[in-house]
Amino acid sequence: MLVWATGKAVRLAWYYPTSTVLGVILMLVGIPLHGLGGWWLVGGLTLAVVVVGFWLWRRDPEVFLTRVRWSRTELRRAYVYAGHWRTVTRLSGLSGDAKGREYRPKLMRTRSEWWRDRVRVKMIPGQAPEQWELRASGLAHSFGARSCRVRVVKPSVIELDFVHADPLARPLPVPEMAAPGPSVNLKRVQIGRTETGKPWTLKLLGGQYLAVGVQGAGKASILWAVLRALAPALRSGLVRVYGIDPKGGMELGQAPELFEGGPVYSNGAEAVELLESLANEVRERSARFRGILRGWSPQCGEPFLLLVVDELADVIAYQTDKRLKERATAALQTITSQGRAPGVAVLGLVQDPRKEIVPFRNLFTTRIAMRLDEAIQVDMVLGDGVRARGGNAHEIPESTPGVAWVKEDGKRDPVRARAFHVTDTNITELQHYVTGTSATVFAFPETTITNGDTAA
Ligand SMILES: Nc1ncnc2c1ncn2[C@@H]1O[C@H](COP(=O)(O)OP(=O)(O)OP(=O)(O)O)[C@@H](O)[C@H]1O
User: Fold this and answer.
1) Does residue 247 sit within a domain?
2) How many whole angstroms from 401 Cα to the centroid of ligand 1?
3) Strand 116-122 relative to strand 157-163: parallel, antiparallel, unpaired?
4) Domain of residue 425, residue span
5) pTM as predicted
6) How far does residue 421's CA lie from ligand 1's centre (Å)?
């Protein structure tokens, strides 16, 4: 009994360290003062702590919950998880019996943040993370969360993310542009923030990018956030950008000076010639580098090349001239498959991810799924099984343009992130920064109409 009770006490102290320490302190205060009304003092102190905590929570719940994460962790563990763990895992079919013994997944460490609870679990023998992925929705409902994602930590240990709120609900303003001069790290180009608060970075050097989303999903913000992050390198000539905007220049036409030779505003011969000239550059550079360099670096004396194609489908699928379509597809395949070492990257934006539209999706090393209509489209972009790990891009609400699920080749789990919101003023500022012309952006003047109304 003593061994059992000691084991229980150690386990309790391990999972509820702060409550245990506080309890011990209160007992140490209360017992010596027992005869002097010490327990009243302890009760009063406890009440004071609770009242002050409640007041702080009412004032600013987010700050309170961030500051006293331990209390949230221990409270939620006790009331939400520990109490129902056995029943929920049993009813979900996640525990089992063998040789008359019940095997139950073990609830390990929990950590509560203001928007999610991270719950570590030791699986029972013979269990696979995929079994938990299949039951993720049921687990979320059982523990009162909006969604549940499953991550593998190490063999037989997984972490469940129970999500309660969206940390990316508010638009992210673009950061100030870097001062001209310092070179940009092309392996870490920041274009937004992930839901855990870390920078969302693209590895342009060595990567090829495909962003897919319905109309209004915020694809353009990815494009402009990349160009803004590259601003010092565009200004110094370290990076050259080429652009194709078959939608008649509605997007790239906002800052044509940023693009080498100006953007191409059609999907015809001019666009195909640009693609073929870049494919040739890839081959020529590879030949020049062979035996001398392993890959492009800022010291190699040649600029890094980035091709941006807004609405890729117009160039490789909706083109009615079969010959032009084939030439465009072949050139893009060469750039995406061989461009890594010679320093040529592609950022393609598209609305429809079907194989008939982008037959070489797998050549893009990072695929970005923004808001999509159907679950099957998510599988097409991110790959099979990624949705079960949380990547539900078809559930991104319309109210959060710029939010995306990102899947990099070689990484098991997708990442949820939001691109910076780049406004028209930000784009004008970028253009002046890169071209070296100075300009002040004025707000639209307000005119007062004689009947007293004000119009912009
Ligand atoms: N990252 C973002 N944060 C907040 N709002 C955004 C963001 N990106 C875009 N928006 C807003 O969402 C709307 C649609 O964005 P955008 O035009 O970039 O979508 P799109 O996917 O490029 O659409 P289309 O396919 O029609 O070109 C715009 O009003 C824009 O201001």
Assistant:
1) yes
2) 6
3) antiparallel
4) 172-435
5) 0.83
6) 8
